[in-house]
Amino acid sequence: MPPILTLNDGHPLPAIGFGLYKVDPAETEAVVTAGIDAGYPLIDGGAFYDNERQLGAAVRASGRRDELLVASKVWGDPVQSYDQTLADFDRSAADLDIGVVDIYMIHWPRPARNAYVDVWRAMIRLREEGRVRTIGVCNFNAQELQRLEDETGVVAPINQVESHPWMPQHDLREYHREHGIVTQAWSPLGRGRLLEDPTLIEMAERLGVSVAQVVLRWHVQLGGAAVPKSRNADRLRANLDLDGFELSEQDMARIAGLENGTRTGSDPKDRQ
Ligand code: A2P
Question: Which residues bind substrate (predicted)?
Fold first, then answer.
């Protein structure tokens, strides 16, 4: 099993969870059930994915609610505000219907709206009320994270950002390390596109593992977390099985050499 990180709020975060972005609502219950059966300790959902009712139903049906961490995210349309965040949370919590929401995150900072600090204040309130255990953010840059800290005194425990060997985000990771923030990668496999990289293929062959396992092991060895996605039960299981091998310093350096700035998802500054 991948390691369990400790967040700056004292709560655990399993290094590997599985993501529900673009999982069709009609498929979600089966996908979540397969993930739980494969042993995933963390399920990364969000209101925008439009599958929270199905996610909650699968978690309840599993009978293992207490062993699982479930994350949700506030989207913030048409407005981002303190009150809208509380209202959006009520909807997600009702759809999930799993009691306390383990992790609740701001999906995008949308800096042009200049409202993310108010959203963060609402998140802090939800945590104080015990409706959410851990609050976090996604797609924040260092300056935006610093504003949360300066204006509320609450450092985000998690920042979920696009990260993979093409775009490792080393500078942001360094800021995170200095401030006790866990880097959690979305599209950790570059939406699957990294799996065709010849350097990684060669490394995986030498180590006797899959390319996805090499990339996920890289995330873990950087001290971060990741939420890979797969609709296939065997691949889901394999992506969680990262223990039997290690990347040497040389391997880590070769992977670092793959950085080329390629994004496989939206640039946060285009999300307003
Ligand atoms: P599939 O669902 O057919 O397994 P990311 O997590 O970066 O968004 O990447 C998800 C993509 O990577 C999906 O297209 C998924 O396809 C593919 N993928 C995930 N795990 C593996 C794996 N172990 N081997 C091959 N492809 C994988």
Answer: 107
